[in-house]
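Pinned message: reference record for Glucan biosynthesis protein G
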Amino acid sequence: MTLSRRHFIERLGSLAAALLAAPRAHAQSAPASPGPQTPNQPRFGFEDVIRRAREIATGPYEANPPPLPESLAKLDYDSYRDIRFRPDKALLGGAGAPFRMHMFHPGFLFTRPVVVNVIRDGVSAPAPYSSSLFDYGRNKFGSLPVNLGFAGFRLHYPLNDPRVQDELISFLGASYFRFLGRKQRYGLSARGLAIGVGAKETEEFPYFREFWIEQPSADADRAVIYALLDGPSLTGAYQFFVYPANETVVDVSLQLFPRRRIERMGVAPLTSMFFVGENDRRFNDDFRPELHDSDGLLMHTGAGEWLWRPLRNPKEISFSAFMDTNPRGFGLMQRDRTFEHYQDIDLGYETRPSYWVEPRGGWGEGRIELIEIPTGDETNDNVVAYWTPNAAPEPGQSLSWGYRITAVSDDFRLHPGGAAHNTWQTSARALGAPEPPAPGSRRFIIDFAGGDLGYYLTDPEKVQIVPSTSAGKIVRTFLVPNPKTEGFRAGIDVQLEKGQTTDLRAFLKSGGRALTETWTFPWKAD
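Predicted structure (tokens):
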């Protein structure tokens, strides 16, 4: 399977939750209660999942799940999309609880059934599969096995309107999950874990093999989900606290048990799509100026520096690493929120959420890795970002992490300084100049705005640009006020030997005080 094909399949998996969304409705039915809890019976909780993960880590990984009926395994995309959960069969809606749970049917790409349990009064019981839970549309399957199981699930909540149950979070395919804040539409995805991302032959996709969802009370302000991860290299126990809000928050706790040494493991991985943007216009045969779910990687280092790295659709696979100790945050951002920059009425790229990861506790030494994979269209998730610890996990260890992911609508408020709003690149020469640009040269233009930059527009001489390059030389810079953004437009001309690669960096300062985040961008001289 080629890289592009594989990531096309990943993209379908992460998008299926949105594409399969059933009509909005109020659903009241709930699973039968397993009965009242006896006084001495312990309540099911995260420790039970940790125990399960530790136990199965001592045995071999079950690589080959029981096969699905051929009629389900051979479904194409459109036929699978025609299978819809019946909203009137929703789970968790008893006793006036605000959350509803809908199930995903096995089939198409989702051939490995998972177990979904409901915890009522502290007691866990599996949600039984029944074909009566689904509307199969034009599909005709005949009799299906009673123990078929589910491919995943999603939770609904009155997120945008107290009268309407909107999709809040979904788990479907490997360890992928996605969630929304108010007035957001699905774009990027999160994953439970990443192993060997970008390695064509060795990348693993551990999967959530079992879930437990607590029955919420009528006044519940959060959903509680536990998950058991399994894969060739490790097992893991996960706890998700989901807080619906204008910017929905998911608190994640995990404990991992390696089966073998893992050379490249990604914690809190995010995956997204970048096809065309203002800084990368190789593909421009489309009426829509930009096409991306995210346009940059934002980082808050352990030392307190804010970094902004615009995303690209590179000509060949690209790996970038940002070394750090105890990072304070990172995320894939959809910073551009202007409809006119996308002109897509149906897909609404300007409404896609950004996911911002904030670690709990010290994560130690490691690096944030960014992988960008070439794509020829917008159907591929071709961008991945995650944290990689320096110490490779070893068999017999128990490893724990905690973090919070927020579905952000406005990342400019995450830090008080100015931010890089726009990035362009062009020929390194003055407009209309007769002489050609110098060999191996390129001009980068960055719009900085926000923070205190507006204060300096009346005295722009107090603001300076601080550029640097890891290779070659910077031959020219300029900085001019930009009243349209209430900020400044910076220009950097860099020159390299042909075939050489550099990492550019720039920020604005006044005196000894940095006024903006640090913009960074890789470039290779053709």
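Pinned by admin. Summary line: The two ends are 30 Å apart (CA to CA).
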